[in-house]
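It is worth pausing here to work through a concrete case rather than discussing structure prediction in the abstract. The textbook approach is simple: state the sequence, then state the predicted structure, then interpret. We follow exactly that order.
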Amino acid sequence: MVISASTRNVSSKSIQYQQSDKEQSVEVCRNGLSGEKPKDLFAELKEIADRNTRTEKKYVTAVISPPKEYSQNLSLNDWAKLAEDYLKKEGIGKDNQYLVHLHQSTDDKHLHIIANRIDYYGKNKVKSHNIGERATGHAEVLSKERNWKTAQEITGEKKAEIKNVLLQEKSQSRSLGDLISRMDKRGYIMQISENSKGLNGARIIPKADINMNPSVLEKVTKQGFKLSDIDPKLKIKEIALGLAKSIGKDRGMSL
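Step two, the predicted structure:
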């Protein structure tokens, strides 16, 4: 699971964005807020935030993204508990206003949170320093509490499986093109990159991980794993050379 968080100032437009998500946003929980329209909700937040004149950035915004392996089956109550468990770890509770929505217009379901750092008594309840690092730590703890594998564990398992399949198919392949075809049949897209000097890299993408309806972030983020990330010892040039030598030996034996 990935949690990103920061302290900032928000506006009615921030709330409008959280509520919209191409009309597929669903509110999962709130506290201390009664309004429905963005301008009314912001007015309520600001009324409390203004009780503290020392704090500059008066709100916490966070995005919580569980792995797809788990997020597809969560109920709204599960999402609400996930949000509130995170907020509690940041010291945000019944004395703070917060608003939480589930965004589900893409294959990557995730939560958006706006919370008031200032409580009803004018006290700032959340330290700004290292809030992003704390969010990463909270993600690991919340995952373990739910018996979820962490994002790092899931990624590690995927890389190990890709390496295993690649080595299996490499031993059976007669050319780089044959290897690419065999990987495709095993459920992986193998992309080869070249420059003026020849082969210079490869990326392997599990077909199961491809989002048919990606988020804006996913559209600009390369999917899958570079060969060097799967294992630094794997080099596309060496793989291609090894396949060529293998073909040469086979031809020599046939003569």
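Step three, interpretation. The radius of gyration is 24 Å. The mean pLDDT is 91.
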